[in-house]
């Protein structure tokens, strides 16, 4: 039975839904045509400096229970928003699409795109490093529920889908048609400096098993409303992950 417009499970009921016409150009498309259409929609955005990312993350990752704190991606720890920097127990800016994969660094564009930048514990960020995403390894002592080995990192279950959708956003947003690299997921690990990040089959699985929650949806809205004025389409439409990467 179709959902009624006022059903609590209807997309229309979400306070974080995209504007009605935002995805018009993507309607009815699948596969490469859908990816191209989404790129055309989301590449229209404001670009932040790397310094501006600090303030953006304080807003996007605000703890719903305490607006003076942010929630750290991998550990899930709530920490003072002002306790940011380079100290061992402070939080810093994690590039979920590792900045060495494509060698874009922290320059404006992919290096400052808040859709894949998240607050993380400094030492946990260091343990993740530039590893690809996959399952397995030893548990991360400072962030239980996360695992890592020589060439991959597995985030905790609560953010597996978040990580997948951030990576796949980057692959759609940055297609090499400007001064930035053409970022593409693949089914490998240990990708080095190539503009690739894996493991795609695992990311697709994570996106399905961990659908967007209100924290992720609110984050998408804050980035759209207050900072970049573009959206992560896979937060609004997680079903598009399978339609773009079938």
Automatic annotation (TrEMBL):
<protein>
    <submittedName>
        <fullName>Endonuclease</fullName>
    </submittedName>
</protein>
<feature type="compositionally biased region" description="Basic and acidic residues">
    <location>
        <begin position="176"/>
        <end position="190"/>
    </location>
</feature>
<feature type="region of interest" description="Disordered">
    <location>
        <begin position="77"/>
        <end position="156"/>
    </location>
</feature>
<keyword id="KW-0255">Endonuclease</keyword>
<dbReference type="GO" id="GO:0004519">
    <property type="term" value="F:endonuclease activity"/>
</dbReference>
<keyword id="KW-0378">Hydrolase</keyword>
<keyword id="KW-0540">Nuclease</keyword>
<feature type="region of interest" description="Disordered">
    <location>
        <begin position="176"/>
        <end position="197"/>
    </location>
</feature>
<feature type="compositionally biased region" description="Low complexity">
    <location>
        <begin position="1"/>
        <end position="21"/>
    </location>
</feature>
<feature type="region of interest" description="Disordered">
    <location>
        <begin position="1"/>
        <end position="31"/>
    </location>
</feature>
<dbReference type="InterPro" id="IPR007346">
    <property type="entry name" value="Endonuclease-I"/>
</dbReference>
<dbReference type="InterPro" id="IPR044925">
    <property type="entry name" value="His-Me_finger_sf"/>
</dbReference>
<feature type="compositionally biased region" description="Basic and acidic residues">
    <location>
        <begin position="91"/>
        <end position="102"/>
    </location>
</feature>
<dbReference type="Pfam" id="PF04231">
    <property type="entry name" value="Endonuclease_1"/>
</dbReference>
């Amino acid at each position: 039975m179709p959902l009624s417009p006022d059903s609590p499970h209807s997309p229309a009921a979400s306070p974080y839904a995209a504007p009605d016409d935002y995805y018009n150009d993507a309607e009815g498309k699948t596969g490469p045509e859908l990816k191209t259409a989404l790129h055309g929609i989301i590449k229209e955005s404001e670009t932040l400096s790397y310094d501006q990312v600090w303030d953006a993350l304080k807003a996007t990752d605000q703890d719903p229970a305490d607006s003076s704190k942010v929630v750290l991606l991998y550990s899930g720890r709530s920490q003072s928003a002002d306790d940011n920097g380079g100290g061992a127990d402070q939080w810093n800016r994690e590039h979920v699409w590792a900045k060495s994969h494509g060698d874009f660094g922290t320059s404006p564009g992919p290096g400052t795109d808040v859709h894949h930048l998240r607050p993380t514990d400094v030492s946990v960020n260091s343990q993740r490093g530039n590893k690809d995403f996959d399952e397995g390894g030893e548990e991360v002592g400072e962030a239980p529920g996360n695992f890592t080995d020589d060439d991959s990192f597995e985030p905790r279950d609560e953010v597996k889908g978040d990580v997948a959708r951030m990576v796949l956003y980057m692959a759609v947003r940055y297609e090499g048609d400007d001064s930035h690299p053409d970022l593409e997921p693949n089914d490998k690990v240990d990708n080095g400096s190539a503009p690739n990040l894996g493991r795609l089959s695992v990311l697709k699985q994570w996106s399905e098993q961990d659908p967007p929650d209100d924290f992720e949806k609110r984050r998408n809205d804050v980035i759209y409303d207050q900072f970049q004025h573009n959206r992560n389409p896979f937060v609004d439409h997680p079903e598009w992950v399978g339609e773009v990467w079938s």
